[in-house]
Design brief:
seven-stranded parallel beta sheet, about 45% helix, globular, two-stranded antiparallel sheet, about 300 residues, alpha/beta
C-alpha cells in the first residue's frame, strides 16, 4: 500500500532523474540532456533567447561546486568503469584503494556511479574517510551510489570535470571505457602543458593498460608526437600501497617546493626592504647636520 487512500498502486518502478532540487519521473523526464541541448548546433534560432539563460545556469553549477567543495580536505579523484561487476578485480582493487587513501588522510572523489566508482566510495567510507560523488545527468540515469557522503549532481560535463581537477591532488585511473579515457588524457594534457603542477597520475591494472602504454611509447613517442619524458608522467602499478605512496611522496615534494618558494620570496622582500632603507639614509657625509671628516 502506498496510496494515502489505501489503494494499491499499479505503477511499477519509475525512471528518475534529479536536477538539483528538482526530481523528474517517467514522462516528465526530457528526451535530451542539458549538454545535448547546449551543444546541438541545429537549434541556432534559439541561441539568442536561450543561451544567455544557459550561461547563468552554467555559472550556477560552478558556484554550487566551488561553494560545496571549498572546505574539502586533500583529495584524490578515482576513475573507472561503471560497468564493472562488484566481484571484478578492478572493483576489489578500487575498494582497497579507497580505504588506503582514506587512512592516508585523503578524501576520495568519484563520479558517484556504480562499478569501480562505487567500490572506491565504499572503501573510503568504511575506512572513515570522506566519500564524494560528482554525478552527471545522462540519458540512461545511473544515480548516485549509497556510499557517497557528499554529492553534487551536474548538468554539464565541463563544470563537473573542473571539480575533479580543482579539488584533487592526484588522479587514480582504473580500467574503464571512453569516460575513463577522457579523464585520463585530460589529466595528462593538463600536466604536460603546465596547467597543473606536479599532479600524479596513477594507472592501476597493469594488464589492462599495457597495450595502451606500448602504443604511446612505440608509436606516439617514437614519431615525436609527445616528448621523450611525457610517459614519466604516468605511474603504472597493481600495488595499492605503491599507488598511495607515489601520491603521498609527490604531495610532500610539492609542499617542500612551495615552502622553499615562500621562503625565497620572504628573503627577497626583506633584502629589498633593507636596500631601500639604506638608500633612503644615504652616505653619512650627506646626512643633514653631518660635518666633513677632520672638522670638530
Amino acid at each position: 500500500m502506498n496510496q494515502s487512500d489505501g489503494r494499491q498502486s499499479d505503477r511499477g518502478p519509475s525512471a528518475v532523474r534529479h536536477r538539483g532540487a528538482v526530481t523528474l519521473r517517467n514522462r516528465a523526464i526530457p528526451t535530451s540532456t542539458a549538454d545535448q541541448r547546449l551543444l546541438d548546433s541545429r537549434g541556432r534560432g534559439d541561441w539568442k533567447t536561450k543561451d544567455a539563460w544557459r550561461a547563468l545556469r552554467i555559472l550556477s553549477e560552478f558556484v554550487e561546486g566551488f561553494d560545496t567543495l571549498a572546505d574539502l580536505p586533500p583529495a584524490v579523484s578515482v576513475f573507472g568503469s561503471a560497468r564493472s561487476s562488484p566481484e571484478s578485480r578492478e572493483c576489489r582493487m578500487a575498494e582497497e584503494l579507497g580505504g588506503a587513501l582514506a587512512r592516508a588522510g585523503f578524501a576520495v572523489i568519484t563520479g558517484g556511479g556504480p562499478g569501480v566508482m562505487e567500490a572506491a566510495n565504499r572503501g573510503a567510507s568504511e575506512a572513515g574517510g570522506l566519500s564524494v560523488g560528482l554525478g552527471i545527468e545522462l540519458p540512461f540515469e545511473q544515480g548516485l551510489n549509497d556510499w557517497v557522503d557528499l554529492a553534487i549532481d551536474f548538468r554539464y560535463f565541463f563544470a563537473r570535470k573542473t571539480m575533479f581537477v580543482k579539488y584533487a591532488q592526484a588522479f587514480v585511473v582504473l580500467p574503464g571505457g571512453f569516460g575513463t579515457m577522457d579523464e585520463l588524457f585530460e589529466a595528462l594534457t593538463l600536466v604536460q602543458t603546465g596547467k597543473v603542477t606536479r599532479f600524479p597520475v596513477v594507472l592501476m591494472g597493469v594488464d589492462y593498460w599495457r597495450g595502451l602504454l606500448d602504443w604511446l611509447r612505440d608509436t606516439m613517442a617514437a614519431e615525436g608526437k609527445i616528448g621523450p619524458n611525457d610517459l614519466d608522467l604516468i605511474c603504472l602499478t597493481d600495488d595499492v600501497d605503491e599507488a598511495v605512496r607515489h601520491i603521498v611522496n609527490a604531495e610532500a615534494v610539492l609542499s617542500a617546493e612551495q615552502e622553499a618558494i615562500r621562503e625565497e620570496a620572504v628573503a627577497r622582500r626583506v633584502a629589498d626592504q633593507q636596500a631601500a632603507e639604506a638608500a633612503s639614509e644615504g652616505p653619512a657625509s650627506e646626512r643633514p647636520g653631518s660635518r666633513p671628516a677632520g672638522q670638530g
